[in-house]
Amino acid sequence: MKKRVAILVGVPTPYREPLFERLARSAEYDIQVLYYRDHQPGQQWRLGAPRYPARYLKNFAPERWHGRLLVGAINPGVWQELRAFRPDAVVIYGYNTATTLLAILWVIRHRIPMLMRTDSNVLADPGKAPLTLALKRLLLSWLTRRVSAFLSIGTMNSQYWQFYGATPEKIFLARYAVDNERFQIQADHYRVSRQTIRDENGWRQRYLLLYVGRLVGFKRVDVLIEALRRLSTKRSDIGLVIVGNGPERERLGRLAQGMPYVYFAGFQDQSDLPKYYAVADVFVLPSKWEPWGLVVNEAMASGLPVIATRKVGSARDLIVEGENGYLVPENDPVALASAIDRACESEQHLLLLGEKARGTVQSWNYDSTLAGFHNALSMCFGAKDSPGDDSFHQSRSELGAGSDGF
């Protein structure tokens, strides 16, 4: 008999859709995805109707509160939905909204296995108020004792949960992934016409840097613009394409005045991103802090080397200094300019870095994500045999557990 698995998550995203679709096709589980918001303010993704069982809970939080701690999602109907579905296990994405806390209390009360999925890491903790950190430690110490399994997205996420009290045997690597094959195939398709696309857009520099993401303060696109300004005193062959929109757009435009080699391409839907990855030479993510940064996966799958700060969560797992990209300190335009200069040594150098990048990200795929979900659920249900779906056939020892496993 199939096990019933409820999944409580914030909003639909293009990254989770393939995962939930494949879980819904599994011979092992009946899933029910419960969304506590139907959209994320500032996100402009175009997604069709879910192709898996999903329900949208009524959120009583005003939209201006969305994204705020605790009050960003207030869905008292979550108890009714869980009771109606009668799950054998519940996967909860996050713990810092009223809705997720309500779900956690419901699961504990009914003594049902609870699996936790977050993108948290400790890179953002330094600088927070001591009282905030003390309260956080109290909450997470209480929570980690009650969670049956943690679905870790990568090394920094595993270390986060161990720091707050989770034991290694509770942590299952369920890699953060994108559709590598789609990005690879589509980027290769556009790469054939890359010079034509550059000419049509007026991107005339020999080397093109690319940034993709929201234009918000912590992404530090201003540091990237300043790095390129500094580098322009000795090089005029490097341009920058900025894909995205957000509250920082006007300020960044002012910073880029007098820099005709900086191009703002605005928001682009997921389906259009491979074209931008195809025409670029280097992807840059200069964030002050980043939980993970799935754009790194996308860029690497598209064959681009990546320059990122050491505060980008995915950097620990995906970027090998000098082999498929470069790591720099955050908020340091001098170091960033130096890394860009080294990366753009020659087309041949960039090609080698890009090939290595594409090879690195291949194992970060939905098969490995699903394997982590299955291994964690199997432990919760006491199962010893893997299901028949080949996508789940990867042992926990191959995936790693805890900070030493990967």
Task: Describe what this molecule looks like in 3D.
With 406 residues, this protein is α/β, with parallel strands linked by helices. It has two domains: 211 residues, 3-Layer(aba) Sandwich (Rossmann fold); 182 residues, Rossmann fold (3-Layer(aba) Sandwich). It contains 16 helices and 13 strands. The chain has a seven-stranded parallel beta sheet with strand order 3-2-1-4-5-6-7, sandwiched between helices. It has a six-stranded parallel beta sheet with strand order 10-9-8-11-12-13, with helices on both faces. Helix 8 links the parallel strand 8 and strand 9. The two termini are 34 Å apart. The C terminus is likely disordered.
